[in-house]
Amino acid sequence: MAQTSSSSTRIPRRRSTDAPKTLPSQPEPEVSRALQKVLDGYFPEARADVRALLEDPTLRPTSGLTVEEARQHTTEALSKVLKTGMPYGAFRADQGGTGDTGGTLSGIEMLGHTDLSLMVKSGVQWGLFGGAVSNLGTERHGELVRDLIELRALGCFAMTERGHGSDVQSLETTAHYDPETEEFILNSPTASSEKWFLGNAARDGRWAAVFCQLYTPGQEESHGVHCIVARIRNDDGSPVDGVAIGDHGTKGGLLGVDNGTLMFDHYRVPRENLLNRFADVSATGEYSSDIDSPNARFFTMLGALVRGRVTVGAAAGAATRTALTIGTKYAHLRRQFAPDDSLPEKKLIEHRQHRVRLLPRIARSYGLQFATNLLIKRIHDLEAEGLDRANLTPEQARDLREMEAHAAALKVANTAHATDAIQEMREATGGAGYMAENLLTILKEDSDVFTTFEGDNVVMLQLVTKELLGGFAREVQSFSNLEMVRFGLDNFSGILRRRTGADAVVQNLLDALTDADESSLFDPASQMQLLIERENRLLKSLARRLRPARKLPVEEAVKLVDKVQDHMISCAWAHIDRMILEAFFEAESTITDERSQEVLEQVRDVFFLSVVCDNAGWFLEQSLLTGTRTKGARAGLADLVDSLGPWSEVLVDAFGTPSTMLDIPMMEPYDAMTPKAKANPAS
User: Is the pLDDT of residue 566 over 90?
Assistant: First the structure.
């Protein structure tokens, strides 16, 4: 159940100094509890339920298993997840669920703290396959929904093909309707149409939600991509006639997920298997849809499946927080180098450069978690309204497009951060971090693919920028990126600055800022204004560069767009950083404890100054900051990591990482360690 804050419009306190106050050297454990409450967001009960489940040591990721053993282990663990009740929230009450969308999204995110194979398997079953049947189907698919919730019908999400991943509209799998038998004929006409990298396909799946080009009698052109559920295995596990199933075998990670392939050879399925929420085919073969435009219908269908993208990003964030917890706690145990022979060796955390490796990444994880919480709350609220996606009001359409853009942005931000931070923690823990028993290498292997599935990150960044350019006042677009170039890119609306979930706090901050204010890098209003201006300038200059494309032949327009792709990526990252800062302000506005507020302010300052330092060249080019100011940012960041260093363990304790992930050899004090020659003697 969602929780709200009554103090969500309080303005974070203003500051005019460029010198951060140093925190006490003795950290206060109660601050960790206060920060965890904020980090747990709007659905703490769902998080608590899954956190309790993850204390089961059998749900911790395990190395050394064969592929078959890993798959069996993950499949068996699904039933434990079901017993928490968390999956029911993804489905409406009339489908046998509870309608607690936010609770389920938060719960699946929590699975990312431990075994990412279990998280992905859960996401495939209840999020992707279940989400397709639930959100694209109608009452006639209710029995299948109830069966898949209860794990009586395991299924896969058959969208990606060998030849087309991100370009879903160009899928090649076909479904021709035969009115004589009232069946669709599924077919894979080319080698590149093979369904590819499908979780649940290689071993466990009995069903598939197949995305395909739909054809009806008398129509040479496809009606566009639609989804049909198809039985792919018999009860004994053998493929049904007309379906060929392949096994991807050993991957670079996620061994517990049975990724496989599907091909169809004129395979017939009943007409009723078409998921017909947005379009249908009658018994005699007449096609109908409440959404006239094929492109609008396509994007409406994909929009109904946005939860998968949300959980991928959120779970990557959870895995990152686990890695940061391991790396930070190790830094408080491990000693290296003494000032001289008369003094004890220093802990890793006592070396500034080590603090620089940890604190900015911890700060970014805080901000990403706050932003993800706002996104999950927004999705929950939108779905609680009972939206009819086929008949949206202009306001609802705008809200959904904004939400989908935010989901894409945070998917990129969380997964890119995971790739960076988990690798940094592996390196920061030396040889110990390279041992599989200490879990960091497993987290690294399993999270690696998150940057490319559920939307390649580079493609997602361009999608975010497209929404920035188009604005959210516009109706759902039916144009592809290329068609937007061809039909006119001069119809730009305002900057995407609204409706991130922190509107009131940010607006109050900006209202309190006057031209006479000294723009301190530690003042929240000045911080907000600087990141808004960065986003604004990048967006406006991008619009100017693209505007000539409307008058060019399509081939020349494509070349122009290709030349500005780096600019598009920079614009998207500016938007992401601004979103994260806004989320910090919203989180701070809910804290009443003085010390916790002070700590979180410094965490936010670390995030902000890291952004400034990483982009110092651009700020100098644009004359938004002077060289003196960027030097001050670097000095301030150094002071902040010194201030927060003793508190770093408090900060990661607030992540609430399950204790089973910390019960690892590298967490043992030196005097308690068992020699390897005794624990695991060589022959």
Answer: yes
